[in-house]
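Posted in: Structural Biology > Protein-Ligand Complexes

Title: Requesting predicted complex, pyridoxal-5'-phosphate in pocket

I'd be grateful if someone could produce the 3D structure tokens for the following input. Sequence and ligand are given below.
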Amino acid sequence: MLHAPVFDGNELQYVSQCVSTGWVSSVGSFVTRFEEMLREITGVQRVVACSNGTSALFLALKLAGVETGDEVLVPALTFVATANAVSHCGAVPYLVDSEPVTLGIDCAKLRSELAESTRVVGGHTYSRKTGRRISAIVPMHCFGHPCAMDEIVSLAEEFRLQVVEDAAESLGSTRDGRHAGTFGRVSIMSFNGNKIVTTGGGGAILTNDADLGDRAKHLTTTAKVPHAWKFYHDEVGYNLRMPNLNAALGCGQLEQLDRFIAAKRDLASRYIKAFRDVDGVSAFEEPRGCRSNYWLNAILLDATHVSLRDAMLKETNEGNIMTRPAWELLHQLPMFRSCPRVDLSQAESIQSRLINIPSGVSVAERHSQIPTRGS
Ligand SMILES: *Cc1c(COP(=O)(O)O)cnc(C)c1O
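-- Reply #1 --
Done. Output follows.
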């Protein structure tokens, strides 16, 4: 696997505690503890643990005010879930370009495109092309590397957009000392099996807006009004709460986050050094001012070596070294083919030149010089 999980802390102990006490489902002390730990790590005010990252993003978008028929700005270079969540809201992804320094949304380019193709009416931005309202922007911190959030936040203010961060991949990453997922109105994280920390399947909504946090908690728990025995629900809610069993696994994992990040940053620096002397290719380095979790390491071929990508993928996979190309860009997928989009030439270039290479903690620690748990 590109990123296999490692469970050599308290995971098993915590999970069996759930089983032996009977607290396996959506109520239990590990859920609260997991949320508390995430609050401490990220410095955010409110955390609501959810069943997965996709549904967390769906609800975060709704709570940020995305409505049926809106358009939402999404990078074309992202995992499909980013756009799926927009569609689940009845909104339409508006695909935008990325830049090569952060692998995130190219803000300068987007600003001039929006200036030309939108108009502001009554405090909202509308597309001149489609007539639809553009209500939000979803920066995604690609492979754990934080986007240029200062620029994105000021662009969002200029065009009256809600900022909903897809921080699914960036637990433990900071920009200017501030944790990814704390710059926008609301953000989400994922704890799927391939992420830096896993709960088996899981996600979370993070926000500094207390009202939004309350709404997230209420809606993820069937909109039940707390009461000692009565089942009273005051609106159509969802069942998106993280089960205690999953949170128990996650608590065991979060306890080791610092160690995971140290190992992964050490691996990244060795990749960067190793590829420095290789012609035509370089290992991707965190943007200036950022401290990245290096969730997935990536190498980038020079434009003149693009044709070697598929041969490299074939050779490495046949040799039992797992490598993968970047995601297909969203406009190449049948369900998003007709989405509005701008020029995507940089995303296309990055996609054609990028290869993800093994990045898991066990790979990192196998050849590491830094002390590990066992040594
Ligand atoms: C993993 C991921 C998600 C979705 O998370 P799930 O928990 O798998 O639903 C969303 N966006 C990005 C960028 C991701 O990498």
